[in-house]
Structure formats: structure tokens, C-alpha cells
Design brief:
CATH topology of the largest domain: Hypothetical protein af1432
Structural class: mainly alpha
Strand content: under 5%
Largest sheet: none
Shape: elongated
CATH architecture of the largest domain: Orthogonal Bundle
Number of strands: 0
Number of domains: 2
Helix content: 55-70%
Radius of gyration: 22 Å
CATH superfamily of the largest domain: Hypothetical protein af1432
CATH class of the largest domain: Mainly Alpha
């Protein structure tokens, strides 16, 4: 597909007219029409503005589709992941994790990841599998991975969770209230400061951020991606430092730092 056809397709997917796009860009609708017919191409300034209007990357407009790769929304089957985590929990007698798995599956039932058809439970299972792949076979961590979003996303309370008080503390730390543009900076500053003081919470939060970074290209707007990059650069080095201070998590800290910084670098190059 050509640039013109990319523009037309994106415009129609958003139910916008040529006139509406033109108004957003401060140009005539004839200019938009000429782009869609491939008579002319938008200059760099207009291309960036178009990306903002359509809430996509510049490359989504500028690249011919035959040069684009087919992407995946998920890699593993969530039910297979659940079986693996549950089997491991049974083998290692992770009793809190066994209860947490069933609770999370029920709590997230019917929920989808942003802008996708991926069942939400795929996300906490991904965190648990990520931890296990780094040889962190620890009841507190696996259970917290499974339950880390049930307060924010499912409206559950800490008292409802079928796990120990130590695990509830981790989940409470990695959960935060809804923010606005006005209060977000203060809430995030206090939020991350509290997490840094608990290495297990820091570990769960870094696992969470790794998975969110891998999916934000299709789940978040450009503004939200930019915000996540800035937030990660500001707060996550301190979380990694907290994890490194715990000897048994040294290998995990190295891998998490590598994964987070590598993904940030890729996004910054493509933005």
C-alpha cells in the first residue's frame, strides 16, 4: 500500500472525512485528497501532525505496507501458561500462588488487554512465567505477579485476596489510585518511592513494566508511549538498584535492566 492509501485507510478507520482531517491540519481538503490519490506527499511537518491526528506512528503512514512486518499480539497461549504456572506452584508447594492463580483468572474473566482481543489474564501469567524463567520460584513473587492488577482493574480490595499479609503488602504497593494531569506527578513520585523500599515489590513492578513495554506499541497512543518512556527513565533505575541490593535477585536485576533499556532504546529510535 502507498502512503496515500495508508492515509485514506487510517482516515476511514477513524470515521473521519477529508474535511475533518484538513481542518485538524490547517490545510484544504483538496490537499488531503491529493495525498490520498498519491499525486503529492505530505511534508515532514504534515506527516507528524497526521500521525498525531490518527494516533499512530509516523512509520504507519510513511512506510509502504509491503515493507511492514506482520506482528503478534501474544506469543503464548494463556491456558498453557496457566497450566505451567499452576504445575510449578504445585511441585514447589507455592500454596499462596495456587490460590492467587484461580482468583486472578476469575477476577479478570471477560477482560481484554487495551485495543486487542488478548484476554487480560495473559498479562499476569506473563509476569509469573517471566519470573519463573529467571529461576525465581518464590511464593510471594509468583502470587503477587498473578494478583498485581486485581485492585486497579477489577475493583477488588486487599482484604478479599486469598494470600498472606506479606503478599498483600506487595500488591498494595504496586497498585495506585487513578491520576489526572494535575496530580499525576505527585502520585507517581510517592508511588515509586514506596516501591523502592520493598525489593519484592520493585521486582514485580519491573516485570510488569517489561510486559507493558512490549505491548504498548499497539495498546497505547503516541502521547501515552512518550509518557511511559519518560516515566520509565525517571523511576526504574531506582527500582533496579533496589532489586540488585538483594543478592538472590542479582541475575534478575541484570536481565530486567537489559530488557527495559533495550526496549526503551528501540522505541525512541522509532518514535
Amino acid at each position: 500500500m502507498s502512503i496515500g492509501l495508508n492515509i485514506k485507510t487510517l482516515r476511514e478507520e477513524r470515521n473521519l472525512t477529508q474535511e475533518q482531517v484538513a481542518e485538524a491540519l490547517g490545510i484544504t481538503y483538496q490537499a488531503v485528497s491529493s495525498w490520498e490519490r498519491d499525486e503529492y506527499k505530505p511534508d515532514t511537518e504534515r506527516l507528524i501532525k497526521l500521525a498525531e491526528v490518527f494516533d499512530v506512528s509516523v512509520s504507519s503512514i510513511a512506510e509502504e505496507k509491503q515493507k511492514a512486518f506482520k506482528t503478534k499480539e501474544n506469543i503464548y497461549n494463556w491456558e498453557h501458561m496457566k497450566t505451567y504456572v499452576k504445575t510449578t506452584a504445585k511441585n514447589f508447594k507455592l500454596f499462596n500462588s495456587l490460590k492467587a492463580i484461580d482468583f486472578a483468572v476469575a477476577a479478570h474473566e471477560g477482560q481484554k488487554r487495551k485495543k486487542s482481543e488478548v484476554p487480560y489474564i495473559y498479562h499476569p501469567l506473563n509476569l509469573a512465567c517471566h519470573a519463573l524463567s529467571m529461576d525465581i520460584v518464590e511464593d510471594d513473587i509468583i502470587a503477587a505477579c498473578m494478583l498485581h492488577d486485581v485492585i486497579e482493574e477489577c475493583g477488588k480490595t486487599l482484604d478479599e485476596l486469598p494470600v498472606s499479609d506479606d503478599i498483600k503488602e506487595i500488591i498494595g504497593l504496586v497498585s495506585h489510585e487513578r491520576t489526572t494531569d494535575e496530580n499525576r506527578d505527585k502520585i507517581m513520585k510517592d508511588y515509586y518511592k514506596a516501591i523502592v523500599a520493598n525489593p519484592k515489590a520493585a521486582l514485580v513492578k519491573c516485570l510488569d513494566r517489561c510486559n507493558n513495554l512490549t505491548t504498548m506499541s499497539w495498546g497505547l497512543s503516541r502521547d501515552r508511549i512518550y509518557r511511559m518512556i519518560k516515566e520509565t527513565e525517571e523511576y526504574y533505575p531506582k527500582l533496579i538498584k533496589s532489586i540488585k541490593a538483594t543478592p538472590e535477585y542479582n541475575n534478575a536485576a541484570w536481565l530486567l535492566q537489559y530488557q527495559i533499556e533495550s526496549m526503551l532504546d528501540i522505541y525512541k529510535r522509532l518514535m
